[in-house]
Structure formats: structure tokens, C-alpha cells
Design a protein that fits this description.
261 residues, alpha/beta, Glucose Oxidase, domain 1, 2 domains, nine-stranded mixed β-sheet, 13 strands, 20% helix, KFase/CYL, arylformamidase activity, KFase_sf, Niv3
Length: 261
């Protein structure tokens, strides 16, 4: 089996609207830290100087949002209302794992430019590759935006979906939609510009707002979809980290292909 990584890294060196803070305790600093933790929490005295080179195990501390790097949005991210079920929308730790290990298909939107595309564009791409969606297929959108990952342009220039496109996929039983862009919706500037021009509230983040009435998840900030030698006929594994009560969770998304692909 061939495994292709489709994830973008969490990298404190890249541009993020919410900056990533990554602090590292090296092995010597971590030895002192471990000694202090053992004494303060467990009443155990231990001199780290007896360790080889006085070193223990390095320790990384990170400050970041659950929407940094490749991640999966849970229904609770979209709002407090869930018209499709009794009770509130589910958090990421409540989602069924079988949603995230499924056959997948890639739709190429790399020629669409900045803005939101509709159902007609997705259907045309499905027809081009000769694929009929099955319930629970994972649909991945290749926009090419990951080429700008780590820069400000990554957050301002990419292709998203309008409401009709999301409904088209959900109507076919899709429950997970992924993109290599910052968001499944169009960029903030494009959305606000169209709203100010038209006064139409339906252009305000429709891909996310639909999640208040139809339960589904988004994978955002994928990378490297151009590495895939096929548009269909592979499986995607993208299990989210189990963060209790969270609206999203980081994921290591990988495509699994037969060796002959």
C-alpha cells in the first residue's frame, strides 16, 4: 500500500492570523523541569545530575488554535443550533470515527480563482472524471492554495464553495468535505465585498452556516493533493485528535492507495 501525506504542518515560523507559539525545553532544561514536577506533584526528590549528561527528555509547549494546520471542523464549530437533531451540535470528540476513513475523490478547482464556486462547477468536474458520488464518500477540493501556505496570501486568495455546491455534495450522502485552502468558504474579503454589493446575507459563509441545518464536517488546510496519481479509487484516513468539547481537532490526513496506482 502506498501512503501519501496530505497534511500541512503546524509551523511557528509561518504567517498565521493567530500566531503559533512553540517553546522547546531541551533535554537538559527538561531534566530540571522533570525533577521539579516530581517534587511538587508527587513528593519525590530526584537529582537530575545523576542522569547521563544531566539530560532527560525534551518537551515542547505549543500555543495555537484548533484551526491551525490540517484540522477537522466539528458541527459545534458552526453555531449553537442544530435543527437536524435533538440537543446541541456534536463536538469533535463525539463524531463517529468511521466518517474519517472512507473512499475519497479529488475535484480540481485550481483554475477557478478567488471567490466561491457553485454546484455547476462541482458537477462538471465530477462528470469530467466520470465519478458518481456514493454515500459517505469524502470529497477533497484541490484549489492549489496550499502553495501559499505560511504566507498572508494563503488567507486571502483561494477558491471556496457557495451554498449550492455544499448542498449538492450533502444531497449525495457526503458527510466530510475537504479543501487545501484556509477555508471551505471564500476568503473574508471576497465574502464581505459581495455582501456589501448585494445586501444578500446568503453569501455570508454559507458553507459553514449550512452546518447548522445539516450535520457534516470540513477538513481545512490540506496540502499536496497534486501528489495523488488518481482522482478517485483511494481511501482517506483523517482521524481528528480527540479534544473534549472542542469545535475542531487537528488531523494527519493521508491517502491510502494500492501499490499499482
Amino acid at each position: 500500500m502506498r501512503i501519501i501525506d496530505l497534511s500541512s504542518p503546524v509551523d511557528a515560523a509561518g504567517f498565521e492570523p493567530d500566531p503559533v507559539v512553540h517553546d522547546v525545553l531541551g533535554p537538559k532544561e527538561a531534566a530540571t523541569h522533570m525533577s521539579e514536577e516530581m517534587r511538587d506533584h508527587f513528593g519525590i526528590d530526584f537529582d537530575p545530575a545523576v542522569l547521563p549528561e544531566g539530560e532527560f527528555l525534551s518537551l515542547d509547549r505549543l500555543q495555537l488554535t484548533t484551526h491551525t494546520g490540517t484540522h477537522i471542523d466539528a458541527p459545534s464549530h458552526y453555531g449553537t443550533r442544530a435543527s437536524y437533531r435533538d440537543g446541541p451540535p456534536r463536538h469533535i470528540d463525539e463524531m463517529p470515527l468511521d466518517w474519517f476513513f472512507r473512499p475519497a475523490v479529488v475535484l480540481d478547482l485550481s483554475d477557478q480563482g478567488t471567490g466561491a464556486v457553485g454546484a455547476d462547477v462541482l458537477q462538471r468536474e465530477l462528470d469530467r472524471i466520470g465519478h458518481t458520488l456514493s454515500p459517505m464518500d469524502i470529497v477533497l477540493l484541490r484549489t492549489g492554495a496550499d502553495a501559499w501556505s505560511g504566507t498572508q496570501k494563503y488567507f486571502t486568495d483561494f477558491t471556496g464553495l457557495d451554498g449550492s455546491a455544499v448542498h449538492l455534495l450533502l444531497d449525495q450522502g457526503v458527510r466530510v468535505i475537504g479543501t487545501d485552502a484556509f477555508s471551505l468558504d471564500a476568503p473574508f474579503g471576497d465574502i464581505i465585498g459581495r455582501y456589501r454589493e448585494t445586501g444578500d446575507r446568503s453569501v455570508l459563509w454559507p458553507a459553514h452556516m449550512i452546518g447548522r441545518d445539516r450535520e457534516y464536517c470540513q477538513i481545512e488546510r490540506l496540502a499536496g493533493l497534486e501528489q495523488l496519481p488518481v482522482s478517485r479509487g483511494f481511501r482517506l484516513a483523517c482521524f481528528p485528535v480527540r479534544i473534549a468539547g472542542a469545535g475542531a481537532g487537528w488531523a494527519r490526513a493521508v491517502a491510502l492507495l494500492d501499490e499499482d496506482e
